[in-house]
């Protein structure tokens, strides 16, 4: 695990080549921008990063590849947003888990449940992905393995009603975290957004804002398409934090940088495998190093 972000402080090939060119030479900024875009960073942000270098009085005075590397690294670091979304106290809380099909919503719910059970919390599931028959079953299997309660009404049920039931129950018991699954697709996008907004209204009518978190799951391997996904869900509901799943395979953090910078949504966790233990709070240092590695080649 975490092979990709072994502390790589030594400047890689690209940074060395750029340093040899010199920060004010023909081609320097172009080569840098190309490498940033290659690393899944949105073109406008790649330009922003190179502009920062261009406009900095320090850039012309860089005396080693190491200095150039740490300069680029600092600019990128400042653009990355992270947040801690672990429950802070023993109050009731609901986490609505959002994202398109196949990104890892259900798996991430099981991982978060394990994490919070280990921290001594009481956790239950609401099977809000009622669009696909297999989705409820998949969540029920995880609930069985974890030994936790699942609120479910089967395929085709109203997800708002399923989640409402779960909320009533944790409220009655006075303590607990409800992790609510959602469908990642409907017959069309506007239908999905309407469905999610209905769920959101139902939750808001039952709980106060601080105990309600909307978590979006983004697959690290999706590339630039992940930005559009984040935009849709953020516009529909507002997202408190993102889980970057599948960060174990071909991991390139450029997507996280693009989403942080363009939408202002922070990253909360990274999923690093299919096991229950394969989730951890997003480590901004590791993310920046993975972006630097991708840029440097
Ligand atoms: N390698 C890897 N696979 C993951 C990760 N998270 C989820 N998966 C896999 O991605 C697939 C889809 O996950 P699922 O939770 O069903 O996605 P959902 O449709 O969003 O609920 C499954 O095969 C999971 O095992 C991760 O962090 N790393
Ligand atoms: Mg699912």
TrEMBL record:
Q: Which GO terms describe its cellular component?
A: cytoplasm; plasma membrane
Q: Where is the SRP54-type proteins GTP-binding domain?
A: 92-293
Q: What does the UniProt keyword field contain?
A: Cell membrane, Cytoplasm, GTP-binding, Hydrolase, Membrane, Nucleotide-binding, Receptor
> What's one GO MF term for it?
GTPase activity
The family database entries (Gene3D superfamilies) matched by this protein are listed as:
P-loop containing nucleotide triphosphate hydrolases, Signal recognition particle SRP54, nucleotide-binding domain
Q: Which example biological process does GO assign this protein?
A: SRP-dependent cotranslational protein targeting to membrane
Query: Start and end of every Signal recognition particle SRP54 helical bundle domain?
Result: 1-80
Q: Which family does it belong to?
A: Belongs to the GTP-binding SRP family.
The record ties this protein, via NCBIfam families, to: ftsY
Name listed for the protein in its UniProt record: Signal recognition particle receptor protein alpha subunit
Taxonomy, top ranks, is: Bacteria, Pseudomonadati, Spirochaetota, Spirochaetia, Spirochaetales
């Amino acid at each position: 695990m975490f092979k990709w972000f072994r502390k790589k402080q030594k400047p890689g090939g690209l940074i060395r080549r750029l340093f040899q060119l010199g920060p004010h030479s023909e081609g320097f900024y172009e080569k840098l921008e190309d490498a940033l875009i290659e690393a899944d960073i949105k073109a406008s942000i790649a330009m922003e990063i190179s502009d920062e270098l261009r406009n900095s009085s320090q850039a012309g005075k860089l005396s080693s590849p190491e200095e150039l590397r740490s300069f680029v690294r600092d600019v990128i670091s400042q653009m990355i947003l992270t947040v801690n979304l672990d429950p802070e106290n023993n109050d009731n809380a609901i986490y609505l888990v959002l994202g398109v099909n196949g990104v890892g919503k259900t798996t991430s719910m099981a991982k978060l449940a394990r994490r919070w059970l280990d921290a001594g919390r009481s956790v239950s599931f609401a099977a809000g992905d009622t669009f696909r028959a297999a989705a409820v079953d998949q969540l029920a299997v995880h609930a069985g393995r974890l030994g936790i309660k699942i609120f479910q009404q089967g395929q085709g049920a109203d997800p708002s009603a399923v989640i409402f039931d779960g909320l009533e129950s944790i409220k009655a018991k006075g303590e607990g975290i409800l992790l609510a699954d959602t469908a990642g697709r409907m017959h069309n996008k506007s239908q999905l957004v309407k469905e999610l907004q209905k769920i959101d209204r139902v939750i808001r009518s039952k709980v106060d804002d601080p105990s309600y978190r909307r978590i979006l799951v983004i697959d690290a391997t999706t590339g630039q398409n992940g930005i559009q996904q984040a935009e849709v869900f953020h516009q529909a509901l507002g997202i408190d934090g993102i889980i970057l799943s599948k960060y174990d395979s071909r991991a390139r953090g450029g997507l996280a940088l693009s989403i942080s910078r363009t939408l202002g949504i922070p990253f909360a966790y990274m999923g690093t495998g299919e096991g229950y233990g394969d989730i951890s709070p997003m480590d901004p240092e590791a993310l920046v190093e993975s972006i630097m590695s991708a840029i440097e080649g």
